[in-house]
Design brief:
Helix content is 71%, strand content 0%. It is built from four helices and no strands. The longest helix has 23 residues.
Length: 69
């Protein structure tokens, strides 16, 4: 039974590594180590989602043309 549990652990570790968010690469040019400032993975994921949403909104506004009457 211990052998059956080991593959499950091995499967979760690569998934966790793949999901890690590197804030320093998302926000380049900052002198502060953002990964140390925000050690919680949930906060990092939130900041990544905010960055993605901001980019999508800016793209939408750029492509949206206002026609004044």
């Amino acid at each position: 039974m211990e052998e059956q549990e080991r593959p499950k652990e091995d499967q979760t570790q690569p998934e966790q590594r793949r999901k890690e968010v590197d804030l320093n690469s998302l926000f380049p040019g900052k002198e502060v180590d953002l990964n140390r400032l925000f050690p919680d993975e949930g906060t990092r994921k939130l900041l990544q989602d905010l960055r993605r949403n901001r980019r999508d909104i800016e793209r939408f506004i750029k492509n949206f043309s206002f026609e004044e009457e």
